């Protein structure tokens, strides 16, 4: 077999180190891909697959993208979770002997992208690392390379806890050791949908000593090193902006497991996975991208410390009351650039002069912002003002060095101000003087030759030239002018003295462009040393932005400041913050809630669609809002500070996302029961729905009893099992409440009002009527229900025979249809399967959608029978 060409050999050598990435191999103006990479990339990017000679008999697959538009293609692949290794020519092809030397200069991965065009500005982009240790503990670290922040947490409670912690965070990639058990690796990819990367060798890098200073735990040092080692390997550039990792004491925050994060739709909805319709969607009234990112973090980590909560609330109240001042603060904040990400890009060395001007302008707004804040008579807000330290030196450096409106490119000059650098000024003088001289030359030549249209011009190829139209050529003296270029109507000439000046001008310009670039890099390096100040500033600005956002949303939606109690939870006229916004017509019905040490379990009954789930989630959302320091949607709130919130939201709601199995339901219930404390909130919404009636009811009852007797968590328990309302007699701290519905002309009317006591009936059939099922069918269901309800508890519930036991003119008519005896008998058998099935339906365990589908099928069956 023939050998590959030397370039292909080089390709294969490099590719061997980047098996799990697309290798973008630079060839002239293109990045080319070969072999499997080419086939896969052609498919993913919808580009043409071609073939290329590679020295062997058969051509090899190839595809490519132009280097100047490569970013879009790279983004496309990285968004899909792939990695892309960028391989550049690292020597000048003109001077290279043999194959041009090539190297991978960067590995772009989902967690390490930095380019602003590849990032969503209102979202963090995390890369995480997970390390496991012999004592069974895990350490997770996650970093946002674009902002330089990292968080680290030790998890003792097992792998599930790792998933709960990482769930719903914007983590794109997780770096692990290759000996993490397969099964756990699979859970990471399945449950978190992330790209996995491996880093086995861990070496502590002295260069980054400073960011390890706060880690006194060897496991943490190892875990953070794993992440850094991987990032260094892939990025091959400076990481000066990385901050110390914030150690997360998970017990300092309200803990929400992954079920609750999902069920409560804090930052995205279950169905569409988007922000719209989530609590974040309602609350995010921030004006800066940094503020928006922080608000999301606050929402995911509500506080437990009452002093911290009150501090936030106090500031929110200050902003709330001062509408005018808040408005002008918002205006000023709007002109503050994304300082956090800018700091990252300064460290990485990919800012241009325009970015630095933005930085300067942002910093120049700060005194004004500071003044706004100081004008408040609110201590918390004044404190924020005091924490705003303007790095005036940065402003001074940039003010003296960079012109106000620089070009995008940093390699073509016109960046640095006159007077900033003596040598640069000399070059510029030379060039300007030269140009002045040329202007004078033009005048002189015109006079001497008497050609009015004579002009001196410049182009990149020929340099400076004297242009004379063909009609005037005869006026030129012999000998002095050397012909350079012929156009249709004119000739272009040079003279020795013009040539000489040109040399001087171009030299000066070239030197000044080069010097400007060097000066720019020097300025950027100077600014680099202020990165920590800029980051600190970004942090305070984000905080201010979040607090004003809370005030803004609280005022717009009539929220009230909550107070906190040790034992008593009272909410007057509480509303669901999201649903009231979605309805947006003021028709949301507010409801009260009360939980205390005497009554800590509320059992909620009421028809489908009446508002049980809404009422339960409302309490969780109000509690979370209170614990992040926001006002809450109600007239008055005295809240408890919950340590954990657990949710099990009804099968009905989950069916939509196709994730409901009885097993999941039980897992979630178990998770709540085994972790809740008497300071937790548990929401169990129609538990036991996923199995047969008696099973479900038995489990539901046992679970309520267990929570009541052993856990003492504040609990809301909605159920469709009416029988459970009797528990009020035996469980002393359980109280029945129900959502009121009324019957009006045979239809059910939902009032969405919570009342004391148990619901009188279930209205399942009424809901079926609302769904427009045929009247005959509804009437029949009523008959069956009556029969079931009249059957003695001790008797086994029998299938009703439609012909005999109950008067029924709905289904029976086709039985007495004059068919032959034998047929009739057969038919009766078939009918009774229909009846059996109908009778076995567990109406209360069905969602309206279920009911629709089932009845549709049964009706179809019935219709077929009528046809016979
Ligand atoms: P359930 O859990 O009892 O079946 P949901 O809580 O899912 O009912 O509520 C069903 C629908 O009723 C909601 O989507 C909402 O449109 C409406 N709803 C619920 N609570 C209220 C309320 N308090 N005020 C107005 N509409 C409500
Ligand atoms: Mg419900």
Automatic annotation (TrEMBL):
Its domain of life reads: Bacteria
Q: Where does ATP bind?
A: 606-613
Q: Name one GO cellular component term.
A: cytosol
Is Ribonucleoprotein found in the keyword set?
no
Q: Which InterPro entries match?
A: DNA_mismatch_repair_MutS (IPR005748), DNA_mismatch_repair_MutS-lik_N (IPR007695), DNA_mismatch_repair_MutS/MSH (IPR017261), DNA_mismatch_repair_MutS_C (IPR000432), DNA_mismatch_repair_MutS_clamp (IPR007861), DNA_mismatch_repair_MutS_core (IPR007696), DNA_mismatch_repair_MutS_N (IPR016151), DNA_mismatch_repair_MutS_sf (IPR036187)
The UniProt entry's GO biological process terms, in alphabetical order, are: mismatch repair
Keywords, sorted A to Z? ATP-binding, DNA damage, DNA repair, DNA-binding, Nucleotide-binding
Q: Name one GO molecular function term.
A: ATP-dependent DNA damage sensor activity
Q: Which residues form the DNA mismatch repair proteins mutS family domain?
A: 680-696
A Pfam family matched in the record:
MutS_I
Task: Report the function annotation for this chain.
Answer: This protein is involved in the repair of mismatches in DNA. It is possible that it carries out the mismatch recognition step. This protein has a weak ATPase activity.
Q: Which family does it belong to?
A: Belongs to the DNA mismatch repair MutS family.
| Record-linked HAMAP family | MutS
Indicate what this protein is called per its UniProt record.
Answer: DNA mismatch repair protein MutS
Q: Which gene encodes it?
A: mutS
């Amino acid at each position: 077999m023939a050998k590959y060409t030397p370039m292909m050999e080089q390709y294969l050598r490099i590719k061997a180190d980047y098996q799990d990435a697309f290798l973008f191999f630079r060839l002239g103006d293109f990045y080319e891909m070969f072999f499997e990479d080419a086939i896969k990339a052609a498919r993913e990017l919808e580009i043409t697959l071609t073939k290329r000679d590679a020295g062997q008999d058969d051509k090899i697959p190839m595809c490519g993208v132009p280097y100047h538009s490569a970013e879009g293609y790279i983004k496309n692949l990285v968004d899909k979770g792939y990695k892309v290794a960028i391989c550049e020519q690292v020597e000048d092809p003109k001077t290279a002997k043999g194959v041009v030397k090539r190297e991978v200069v960067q590995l772009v991965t989902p967690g390490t992208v930095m380019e602003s065009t590849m990032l969503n500005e209102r979202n963090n982009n995390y890369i995480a690392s997970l390390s496991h240790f012999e004592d069974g503990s895990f350490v997770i670290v996650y970093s946002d390379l674009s902002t330089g922040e990292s968080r680290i947490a030790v998890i003792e409670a097992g792998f599930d806890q790792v998933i709960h912690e990482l769930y719903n965070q914007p983590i794109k990639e997780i770096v692990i050791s290759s000996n993490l058990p397969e099964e756990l690796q699979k859970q990471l990819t399945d449950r978190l949908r992330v790209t996995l990367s491996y880093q086995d060798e861990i070496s502590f890098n002295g260069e980054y000593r400073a960011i390890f200073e706060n880690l006194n735990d060897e496991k943490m040092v190892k875990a953070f090193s794993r992440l850094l080692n991987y990032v260094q390997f892939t990025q091959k550039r400076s990481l000066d902006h990385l901050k110390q990792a914030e150690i997360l004491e998970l017990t300092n925050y309200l803990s929400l497991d992954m079920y609750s994060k999902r069920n409560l739709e804090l930052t995205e909805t279950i169905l569409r996975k988007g922000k719209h319709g989530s609590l974040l969607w309602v609350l995010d009234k921030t004006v800066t991208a940094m503020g928006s990112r922080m608000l999301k973090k606050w929402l995911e980590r509500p506080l437990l410390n009452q002093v911290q909560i009150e501090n936030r609330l106090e500031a929110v109240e200050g902003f709330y009351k001062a509408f005018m001042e808040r408005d002008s603060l918002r205006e000023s904040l709007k002109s503050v650039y994304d300082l956090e990400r800018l700091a990252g890009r300064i460290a990485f060395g990919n800012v241009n002069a325009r970015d630095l001007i933005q930085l300067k302008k942002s910093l120049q707004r700060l005194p004004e912002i500071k003044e706004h804040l100081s004008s408040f008579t609110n201590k918390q807000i004044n404190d924020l003002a005091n924490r705003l330290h303007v790095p005036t030196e940065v402003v001074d450096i940039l003010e003296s060095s960079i012109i106000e409106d620089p070009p995008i490119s940093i390699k073509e000059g016109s960046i640095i101000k006159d007077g900033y650098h003596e040598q640069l000024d000399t070059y510029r003088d030379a060039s300007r003087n030269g140009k002045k001289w040329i202007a004078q030359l033009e005048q002189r030549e015109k006079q001497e030759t008497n050609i009015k249209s004579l002009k001196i011009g410049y182009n990149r190829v020929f340099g400076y030239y004297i242009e004379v139209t063909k009609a005037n050529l005869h006026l030129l003296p012999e000998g002095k002018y050397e012909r350079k270029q012929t156009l249709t109507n004119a000739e272009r000439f040079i003279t020795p003295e013009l040539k000489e000046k040109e040399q001087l001008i171009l030299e000066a310009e070239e030197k000044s462009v080069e010097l400007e670039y060097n000066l720019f890099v020097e300025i950027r390096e100077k600014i680099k040393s202020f990165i920590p100040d800029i980051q600190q500033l970004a942090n305070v600005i984000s905080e201010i932005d979040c607090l004003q956002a809370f005030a803004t949303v609280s005022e717009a939606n009539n929220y009230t400041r909550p107070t906190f109690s040790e034992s008593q939870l009272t909410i007057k006229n509480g509303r669901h913050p999201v649903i009231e916004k979605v309805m947006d017509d003021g028709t949301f019905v507010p409801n009260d809630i009360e939980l205390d040490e005497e009554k800590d379990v509320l059992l909620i009954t009421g028809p489908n669609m009446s508002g049980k789930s809404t009422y339960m989630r409302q309490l969780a959302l109000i509690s979370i809002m209170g614990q992040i320091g926001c006002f809450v949607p109600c007239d008055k709130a005295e809240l408890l500070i919950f340590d954990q919130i657990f949710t099990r939201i009804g099968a009905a709601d989950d069916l939509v996302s196709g994730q409901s199995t009885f097993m999941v339901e039980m897992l979630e219930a178990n998770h709540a029961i085994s972790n809740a404390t008497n300071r937790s909130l548990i929401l169990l919404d129609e538990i036991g729905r996923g199995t047969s009636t008696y099973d479900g009811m038995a489990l539901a009852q046992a679970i309520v009893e267990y929570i009541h007797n052993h856990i003492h968590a504040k609990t809301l328990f909605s159920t469709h099992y009416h029988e459970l309302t009797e528990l009020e007699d035996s469980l002393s701290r359980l109280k029945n409440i129900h959502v009121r519905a009324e019957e009006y002309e045979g239809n059910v009317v939902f009032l969405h009002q919570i009342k004391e006591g148990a619901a009188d009936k279930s209205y399942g059939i009424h809901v079926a009527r609302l769904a427009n099922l045929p009247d005959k069918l509804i009437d029949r269901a009523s008959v069956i229900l009556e029969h079931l309800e009249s059957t003695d508890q001790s008797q086994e519930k029998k299938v009703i025979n439609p012909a005999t036991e109950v008067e029924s003119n709905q289904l029976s008519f086709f039985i007495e249809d004059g068919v032959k005896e034998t047929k009739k008998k057969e038919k009766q058998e078939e009918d009774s399967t229909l009846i059996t099935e109908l009778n076995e339906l567990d109406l209360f365990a069905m969602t309206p959608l279920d009911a629709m589908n089932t009845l549709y099928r049964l009706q179809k069956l019935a219709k077929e029978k009528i046809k016979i």
